[in-house]
Structures are given as C-alpha cells and as structure tokens.
Amino acid sequence: MSAPAPTPTPPGASAAPYWGDRIVGLEGLRGLAAMAVLSYHVAHVLTRDVEDETMPLLVFFMHQGLSLFFVLSGFLLFWPFATRIIEGRELPSLRRYATNRFLRIWPAYVVVLLIVNFVLQMSFLSQNEFGRLPWWKTLVDLTLLHSYLPGTLRTGLEVSWTLTVELTFYLVLPFLAMLGRHVALRTSGWIGSLVPVGAMFVAGVAGKIWQHTVGETSGLSGGDLAWSDNWFSVVSRSLLLHADLFAFGMAASLLYIAVRRGAAPRVAVSALRGTLLVIIGAAFVVAWIGSTPEFQDTFASIGFTGVLLLMVLPAHGDRLGLIARFCDWAPVRGLGVISFSVYLWHMPVIRIMQDLLDPGQGGRALYVLYLVVTVAITLTLATITYWAVEKQALRLKPTGRPARGGGASGLGATAPGDDAVAERSSSPGAERSSTPGRVGG
Predict the structure, then answer these.
(1) In 169-179, which positions are buried (b, 16+ CB within 10 angstroms) versus exposed (e)?
(2) Each residue of 81-132: pLDDT tens digit?
(3) pLDDT of 182-224, one tens digit each?
(4) What is the pTM (predicted TM-score) of this model?
(5) Which of 48, 191, 263, 440 has a CA that sits 20 to 30 A from residue 38's CA?
(6) Rounded to the nearest 10 degrees, how much is the dihedral formed by the CA atoms of 41, 43, 47, 51?
(7) Cα(393)–Cα(386) distance, rounded to whole angstroms?
(8) CB of 250 closer than 8 Å to CB of 74
(9) What's the DSSP call for residue 24?
C-alpha cells in the first residue's frame, strides 16, 4: 500500500521538505542511548579498571545515556500536549494515551522479567545476590511499583527502577498539561505550555538540593544513600530526583514547535545552532569536573538537549544536519528499533557473564572482548523480543485520525512505529518514521 500522506504544515509555518513531516534520526538517537548504557554497565561490572583508571571520562558519558532517554521522553511525550495547549484545543484522549503507554512498556517488560526470574533465575535480589524472587516480590515487580518500596527497590531487572520513573512521568504529565491549559485559557497558549516545564524543572532541582543536603548532613556518599533499603533511596530513585531531566526535553519541544511554526527566521535558527555548540561543550565540561554529584545528570542533560536540538532543527536551508544523517543511518536506526528490549536484556546478560567468568578488574582489551560478546548476545535476544512481543503489542494500539504533535518516547517507547501504529498497513518506511501526530506516542 502507499505511504501515508505527510502531516499538513500548520498555518503560518514554513514548509520544510526534509524535516517537517518526521523527525529524522530519533530512532537512532534512542539506539545510541541504549548502547551507551550497555557499554557503561560492561565497564562498571566486568572491567572496573576501565571505569576507574583507563577511560573514566568515556565511561562517565556512557553512563549518561540514561539522561538522554529521559530528555527524549520529555521532548516527545510533551509534544502533543504542548501543541494543543498552544493552539487552544482539547488535550489528547487520556484513555488512548494510557493504553499506548501500557502497550509500550508492560508486554516486553513482563516477558523479560518472567524469563529472567523463572528460567534464568538471575533476578536481582540484593547486593551481589541473584536468583529467583519470592512470589510476592515477583508480583510487586510485575506492577512496576517495586521502586516505591525499600524492600523491593532494584529487585528483578536492575534497570527497571528507571521504568518506574518513566511510569510516574506518564501519570503526572496529563495533569500538568491540564494545569497548563487552564493557565493558557486565562493568559496565552505559550505561557500555559511553559507551566508544565517549569513545574518539572523546579521539582527536579528541589529534589536534588534536598538529596545534597541530606548527603552533607549524614556524611554518606550518593551511592551509599541511593541504593540502601530505606525511604531516602526510594525518593532518590523516583521522578522527583529526575524531573528536571524531563523538563529540558519538554522545553526543547516548545522551541521546536516555535521553529516549525515559522516563529524564528532562518538567520536566528542558524545563530541558535552555533550557540548550541557552545552550550553543549560547556554543559558536558561542568558535568564532568564542575558539578556536585547530584547535579551531574542535570548538566549532562543540558548537553544532550543541545544535541537533540541540533538534530531536529533545520540546517543550511532545511537540509539534515550531520547528527540527524548519522542517526538515520540504517544500522544506527535499527538499534533504535530494538532499543527498549536492549535496555531490558543487557544487565541479565552482563550478570550471567559475571557469574560464569568471575572477571577481575580488567583492562581495555578485556573490556572490548566483553563488550563484543555482550552486544552480540543482547542484540540477538532484543531482536527476538521486539518481533515476538513488542511489535505484536504495538499492533493493539488504538487507531484513529492523527493529531499534530505526537511521537514516540524515550526509554519507555524506544521502538519505531510507536507513533505510527495507527497506520500499520502502510509501507515499512512509514512504520519506521517518527511522524508528528500520533496522540500519546
């Protein structure tokens, strides 16, 4: 069948033949984020010398791949809400939004958790202890509410606490959008759209200040505080301590909407792209050497937001920029297709290797070997999970007429087609795109 028609250009917006119909490269950017997190965990678990001595800077930035996921989620999930707030229209259907979010996260998560827990028996139980969870902890983990309890924090799939953060963002976002729309009705759409962004930013900064204050008064380091069986750790691994990361992506979506609508002349966009290069460099330098541990993620997210904007904003007469072209390269884009499953599988694979090999500190050569083996196994499992579970779940998503401004999400919605499921009968090329307009992603 023929590909779906491009999304109409909003009134007053400039035509953009290369970037107006879909955001090229977002799948690939998600794939790179997933591979960065995987690469960090290989170093952190299997070859600590690489993290501590030989390549600490590289490993630090690979660790920040998680921050990029949160920035992407803020950008793409806030987009449909922000568009409607600005235009003074009704907000997207909450029923459809909730259904989409459920189908995007739970099916693949549940399948991987059950396999890891009952077949491989490699669920995380406690520090340096893996096995099969008790039945009641398994049930709690299946709900993705385990990160709200000290006794189940980090259990099951070790990375799943981040899914709870995403889940909380999914729940909070519609209410913040309602507040923003309420303000917009009394002021303007743009002012109203800034309300959710400001609320998330203030919450995240306040949470980090609180965490830093507790750390200073207790004399404990961030790791000692954040991974213990106590309520402080629960809060540290919650949306409160990560809300500002989403806020940066949300702010980027507003800027992108403004540029799409022709609110900024080409010369201003070009100047902005140059400014972003300075901001990116400064943010990453501060994250590495000039920030307290609590705010490292914040500054790294500012840098990643700059990278995201460089990719989505038009360059040189609406042509694709270098970042967008690289991320849209088929192998990189393919990583984005299976990136959610990569994220779910990579830690169980690493832990099994740790159990079998009992590695020591290790150096660069050993790190490369372990990385290649981990990537090969993880990509195989992730590909199977995507085609057998994720893709089938996405087929169940509600269909309907697209509305400008939607899109896929980051960590919780890493597969392409998350925003194109409404047109599954269309061409494969349409399925791979990140077309604005699918409500709720």
Answers:
(1) bbebbbebbbe
(2) 999 999 999 999 999 999 999 999 999 999 999 999 999 999 999 888 999 9
(3) 999 999 999 999 999 999 999 999 999 998 888 777 665 555 5
(4) 0.85
(5) 440
(6) -130
(7) 10
(8) yes
(9) T
